[in-house]
Design goal:
It is a single chain. With 486 residues, this protein is mainly beta. It has 2 domains: 334 residues, Neuraminidase, CATH 2.120.10; 135 residues, 2-Layer Sandwich (Chitobiase, domain 2). The chain is built from 5 helices and 33 strands. The strands form 7 sheets. Strands 2, 3, 4, 5 and 6 form a 5-stranded antiparallel beta sheet that branches. Strands 7, 8, 9, 10 and 11 form a 5-stranded antiparallel beta sheet that branches. Strands 16, 17, 18, 19 and 20 form a 5-stranded antiparallel beta sheet that branches. A hairpin with a 2-residue loop joins β22 and β23. α2 packs parallel to α5. The radius of gyration is 25 Å and the shape is elongated. It starts with a helix and ends with a helix.
Length: 486
């Protein structure tokens, strides 16, 4: 019974809102597009993710509004401007709900809440690789109910999942666990002064993880925020405290660096009082909370934001159709201009930072046998980048195939051996010259840099910064630093 009460409170809290976009200043949203309409009376709890092949996946729960045993996970795929038909991921006689998707370690991961027995729900997950879904695995297994898993890639390239744990007295705590590539950590507790903390939503912001959630009691709640940095969660901060209740937040970070936070503000005793509000965080400050909706239809609610690599910031929501007695799903998007890191017309920012994950994916490589001056030159380049990104310096002997698959490389030094040595200044540059991937005569070069696209077929690029001697290499680095800002 606990599960039914909790879900009905969540669903009823969403009744009455409509998503008609308000004016958002410089942003212009497209018209709504209905993408899910089926025989089920419930379609909602959406999540989106983009895979490396450019496909956009939309997952959602679907079933009979009043019979949770019929709820299942379905998905659709957006590719080349069209949505596929709906496909079933789960089909069974138990409740599957609240999905969340992420791409991690070249796999698509999907987490959701699964009814185990009665009011007991666990977090389970599957992965998708080589056109095949894995068998479901349990992430949690307790005598309590775990809901609303939310996944994010950490700054140190691990996978974190935050979720809400509901106790028998209806209080709720936020917990999290981290996957290091081979195993999950023991779950940790996120401290809060509120007795009931549910509906987390999470986003990576540079070297931090920002977590928002609904905190308070069943009758009175607000939106809170905590930041995870260097293994520690900050003290909770109230981020939205409007009259009436604030519930069900969703968030994303767009390519221009803006943090988007939307949630429902409602009166629990008035089904027609439910509105969706929006705040954005830009230029180190939050905007004022403003209505993001207008009440023209009944039971519209936010599902998810998602920033795609092509600049589209997607917004998905569900809308109750009174005539048909169904929840239908809609999407719209706005086009975001990417925030420039360097502003260079010669080297794209994407060489340094992944536009989707915002992770730094570049390393500076110095030869094992390079002259001392090459190491100093590499440090000069690293320092020039440090106010915008943090780049690691490694030796050519440390470059593995795994690094070549996941990082763009800035190679310092050419193929010519330093004075008094037999080995090349940079072995990787020598290999690129031998394979004719490099077209510069480094033996005579007075100092320059060369961008080589995808020399190994892994989708990653390299920049060679070199010259005929160490003085020429120094000039080449100075040219690169100058060109990054012009």
């Amino acid at each position: 019974m606990k599960r039914k009460i909790w879900v009905m409170c969540l669903v009823c809290a969403l009744l009455g809102a409509t998503i008609v976009m308000a004016d958002t200043g410089e942003y212009l949203w497209t018209d709504p597009e209905k993408i899910v309409e089926n025989d089920n009376s419930w379609n909602g709890q959406t999540t989106m993710v983009e895979t490396e092949d450019g496909k956009l996946w939309l997952f959602y729960s679907s079933g009979d509004f009043f019979d949770y045993s019929t709820w299942e996970i379905q998905y659709k795929i957006y590719y080349h401007g069209h949505w596929s038909s709906a496909r079933h991921l789960t089909r069974n006689s138990v409740d599957d709900c609240m999905p969340d998707a992420i791409v991690f370690n070249d796999k698509l991961w999907l987490f959701w809440s699964k009814q185990i027995e009665g009011d007991n729900y666990d977090i389970v997950y599957q992965t998708y690789e080589n056109n095949t879904w894995s068998a479901p695995k349990k992430l949690t297994s307790t005598n309590r109910s775990e809901y609303t898993p939310r996944a994010v890639k950490t700054p140190d390239n691990k996978l974190m999942v935050v979720y809400s744990e509901i106790k028998s007295d209806e209080s709720a705590t936020l917990r999290y666990t981290v996957y290091n590539g081979s195993s999950w950590s023991q779950s940790g507790y996120i401290s809060s002064s509120n007795p009931r903390n549910i509906n987390p939503t999470i986003v990576k912001v540079n070297n931090e993880i920002w977590l928002f959630w609904q905190g308070g009691t069943k009758s009175d709640s607000q939106i809170y925020k905590s930041i995870y940095k260097d293994g520690i969660w900050s003290k909770e901060e109230k981020i939205a405290d409007l009259p009436k209740r604030d519930i069900v937040p969703i968030t994303a970070r767009s390519l221009d660096g803006t943090i988007w936070l939307a949630w429902v503000n409602c009166d629990i005793n008035d089904d027609l009082s439910y509105d969706i509000y929006l705040k954005t965080f830009k230029n180190d400050r939050w905007s004022k909370a403003s209505p993001f909706v207008a009440n023209k239809r009944v039971c519209d609610y936010p599902g998810c934001f998602y920033q795609a690599s092509d600049g589209k910031l997607w917004f998905c929501w569900g809308s109750w159709n009174n005539e048909k007695g169904k929840h239908e799903l809609f999407v719209k998007y706005l086009q975001i201009e990417e925030k420039k890191i360097f502003g260079s017309s010669k080297i794209p920012d994407t060489f340094f930072v992944d536009p989707t994950t915002e992770d730094v994916h570049v390393k500076i490589v110095v030869g094992e046998n390079a002259a001392l001056e090459d190491g100093l030159t590499a440090s000069q380049l690293k320092s020039s980048l440090s106010d915008k990104i943090d780049v690691e310096i490694i030796k050519d002997s440390e470059v593995t195939e795994e690094i070549m698959k996941n990082y763009n490389l800035i190679l310092i030094g050419g193929p010519k051996p330093p004075c008094g040595r037999e080995e090349p200044a940079n072995e990787i540059v020598t290999d690129l010259v031998d394979s004719k991937a490099s077209h510069v005569n480094w033996e005579t070069s007075s100092g320059e840099w060369e961008l080589i696209e995808d020399p190994w077929g892994f989708g990653m690029d390299v920049i060679i910064v070199a010259g005929k001697d160490r003085e020429a290499t120094q000039k080449a680095v100075e040219k690169l630093i100058n060109d990054l800002n012009t």
